[in-house]
Amino acid sequence: MDQLEVEDPDNNSFELTYTVLSVPSNGVLTAYSVPLSVGDQFTQRAIETFDLKYTHSGDESLEDAFKLVVEDGTGGFYAPIDIPVKISDDAVVDVVDPIEATKVPLLFPVPANDQIQLRWATPLSSDTQVHLFDAQGRPLQRIQLERGISDWQISVNNLSTGYYVLRILDEQSVIALPFTIAR
Questions:
Q1: How many CB atoms lie within 10 A of CB 165?
Q2: Residues 104-153: pLDDT tens digits?
Q3: How many folded domains does the chain comprise?
Q4: CB under 8 Å to 82, separation ≥6 — which residues?
Q5: Where in the sequence is the domain holding 168, given as residue range(s)?
Q6: Per-residue pLDDT, 156
Q7: Given 21, 36, 106, 172, which is the most exposed site by the fewest CB atoms within 10 A?
Q8: Same domain, 63 and 112
Q9: Which among 92, 95, 84 has a CA at the least distance from the CA of 62?
Q10: 167 pLDDT above the threshold of 80
């Protein structure tokens, strides 16, 4: 997915939204580890942070494809894009350190409607702060999570449709997870 990139001088990577028009037939397309279906959305930021992934089904096919359309957040859009996928034994399969990967929670659903959930692969080893920001970087909420939890959810009913970022801070790392609310 390193070649899938759209740039717009008037919009940042959180504002460039891809909508899935067709899904791969020989694999699964995921954003932030959540399988995507027709109509689902993700941002350019998901691509930049390597959170958009294609996983081949393992059958004998050597090609696949899916189709996307990109909107720029101000009413503009790009023509639908056909994305070909070539299956290769030489492909990079994984570049994430498995120890570090356990620190990054799964955030779902994306896009969100009434609540979002964070799920860690292992329970938190220390108290952790979660800060919620809007697309302009304004702080909206600060939550303290206690050591030992591995699942957390928050209502987003009071937030407008748009782009948001959760910043997760513990003793050793800072993680930023963008998400959208669509109603």
A1: 17
A2: 788 888 888 999 999 888 899 999 999 998 877 788 999 999 999 999 99
A3: 2
A4: 65, 67
A5: 98-181
A6: 93
A7: 172
A8: no
A9: 84
A10: yes
CA 3, CA 179: separation in Å to the nearest integer?
22
Both 24 and 56 in one domain: the answer is yes
Following CA atoms 82, 3, 52, 158 in sequence, which dihedral angle do they give, to the nearest 10 degrees?
A: -90
CA-to-CA dists, residue 32 to 84, 123, 128, 141, 156, angstroms: 21, 19, 20, 22, 18
Which pLDDT value is given to residue 154? 92
Structure tokens at 22: 């067709």
d(CA 129, CA 171): 10
46: tokens are 């998901």
**Pairwise CA distance, residues 98 & 91, whole Å:** 19
Contacts of 78-87 with C-beta under 8 Å, sequence gap 24+, read 78/6, 80/21, 83/4, 85/24, 85/27, 85/54, 85/56, 86/62, 87/26, 87/56, 87/61, 87/62, 87/63
Report the C-alpha gap between 168 and 132 in whole angstroms: 9
Query: CA separation (Å) from 86 to 60, 63, 104?
Result: 12, 5, 29
DSSP notation for 28-82: EEEETTEE--TT-EEEHHHHHTT-EEEEE-SSS--EEEEEEEEE-SSS-EEEEEE
Among the candidates 86, 109, 124, a domain finishes at: 86
